[in-house]
Each structure stands twice: as C-alpha cells, then as structure tokens.
Write a structure and sequence with these properties.
The chain has about 260 residues and is α/β, with parallel strands linked by helices. It is built from 8 helices and 15 strands. The chain has a 7-stranded mixed beta sheet with strand order 1-2-3-4-5-6-7. Strand 14 and strand 15 form a beta hairpin. About 50% of the residues are buried. The structure holds zinc ion. The site of zinc ion (ZN) has 6 residues, from helix 3.
Length: about 260
C-alpha cells in the first residue's frame, strides 16, 4: 500500500471498572490463543495470538469500540500488541481498531479495506429484511455501541500469508475479504464471521450461515463454510460466542453449509 503517514490516535487511559464492564478476563482456549469476550452479552470475540515473530500478541478482530482498553490491558502481560488483523471490516469487528492504532498497525485483506476505511458494511446490508425490533435494536447498537468508525488500514494480508504461526485463509461471502487464521499443527481455526453461533438477538444457536440481510453473498458464505469444514478443524473459533469443538466439528460445519 502507499506509504502515506496517517496520524495515530493518542494512547488510551485505562479505567479498570469500565474495562470489567466491557469484557470478561481473557481465557486461553488453545496453546497461545486467548479469547476476550466483550459486550453486554459477552458475545463479541477478540482473539489474542502469541506472536513469536514480532513479540507480544497479535489481535485478531477488534470487537466493539468499548473493548479497546480491555484489549490493551489483556495484551500487556504478553508483551503488548504486535499488530491488529481484522477478520473483516464490519462495524462490530473494526469497533476498537481506530483506538488500537495508537499501539500497532491495523491490517486486513485487500478486499476488506474499503469497508474498514468506509461504511463498515452498511453499503450492502439490507436492514429492511430484518424484523422491525431487530432492525431498530441493531441500528442503535451499530451506531452507538459497536462501531468505532472508519479505521486507517496500514497494510494487507491475503491467503497463504503466515502471521504469528497461523496461515491466512480466504473465507468471503458474509463480507468482502473475510479471512480466517488456520494453524495446521493443532488444527485451530479462527474464522471471524464465517459462521454464526448466535442468532439475531444474540442468543446461542448451533453453527449457522450468517444472516442473509448482513451478507454480501450468502451462496459464497456457504461455500466458505464448506471450505472450512474440508480443513477438518479440531476447534473453530467464530466472531461471536463459541468456540465450536468436539468430535463432530466437521459434521456441524457441513450441516450449517447445507441448511
Ligand atoms: Zn460480527
């Protein structure tokens, strides 16, 4: 990308009580990967990945904006934030990213740059297809709770790139340039919104295709879930709730793609 210097925001002043409201303490789910569950319903997942290449931890997805200080605080014992990689550019995945740019570069797939730096998905969403109560609730939360606004993207990653011991995989459909991180040695997949484990009210559900009203291309989203299933992950960690683990991860993903 063009090497244009874009000013960084100031570093955050952390307030422990607000941090505790914004997110639960990080949980280590597999070797060198922690999930930070944020938001009022604790449905917003941000992953910290031990980054032996750079030192510190890579942040995968940036959750909602109120999680920024929790993410910074969670990274400190591990040496701080090395880089931020967005799974895609939607409002609730870039939320804390503008604030985190005070600490590290923010990266995403080339096809996600326009949304990350722009509307955050609103260009192509079809909110009129949602039930009225959900449309009103989401309209409010996207604007006032989730979205931190456009974030400057410092660089890009694409399928086959290696970051922090993981390989970038393309899983588009829900959003343009949606990516996951895949680690072959223990079959761990971090997949952003490739599939959903919560419904439109935030309640838990089995793995499912993302809601059509929020998808760029639902048929492509199904193909990406099938592609993920073909990797036969031992554990698949989505952008909300989860993770999906156990003896039948592949079967559950195949069922989600076929439903
Ligand atoms: Zn999401």
């Amino acid at each position: 990308m063009a090497a244009v210097a874009v000013a960084r925001p100031p570093k955050l002043r952390s307030r422990p009580r607000l941090r505790a409201l914004a997110a639960a303490p990080p949980e280590e789910i597999v070797d060198g990967v922690w999930v930070l569950r944020g938001g009022l319903l604790r449905t917003m997942n941000v992953y910290l990945v031990r980054d032996d290449e750079r030192g510190g931890v890579l942040v995968f997805d940036a959750g909602e904006k109120g999680m920024a200080t929790s993410i910074v605080a969670a990274a400190i014992p591990h040496g701080g934030i090395s880089r931020v990689v967005l799974g895609h550019g939607d409002t609730d995945h870039r939320g804390a990213a503008p604030a985190l740019r005070a600490y590290a570069d923010v990266l995403c797939h080339p096809d996600a740059v326009e949304q990350a730096q722009g509307s955050g998905g609103r260009d192509y969403w079809r909110p009129k297809d949602l039930p009225l109560d959900v449309r009103l609730l989401h309209g409010f939360t996207h604007r006032y709770v989730w979205d931190g606004g456009p974030v400057h993207i410092d660089g890009t990653v694409r399928e086959g790139d290696r970051v922090a011991g993981f390989e970038v995989i393309d899983l588009p459909g829900h959003a343009p340039g949606l990516i996951g991180l895949w680690r072959e040695r223990d079959r761990v997949a971090l997949v952003s919104d490739c599939f959903y484990m919560n419904d439109m009210h935030g309640r838990p559900q089995p793995p499912s295709v993302p809601l059509d009203a929020y998808n760029l291309d639902t048929a492509q989203a199904r193909r990406s879930i099938r592609k993920l299933a073909e990797l036969r992950p031992a554990i698949a960690c989505p952008g909300h709730l989860g993770p999906l683990s156990g003896p039948d991860v592949t079967e559950q993903l195949e069922a989600a793609a076929a439903a």
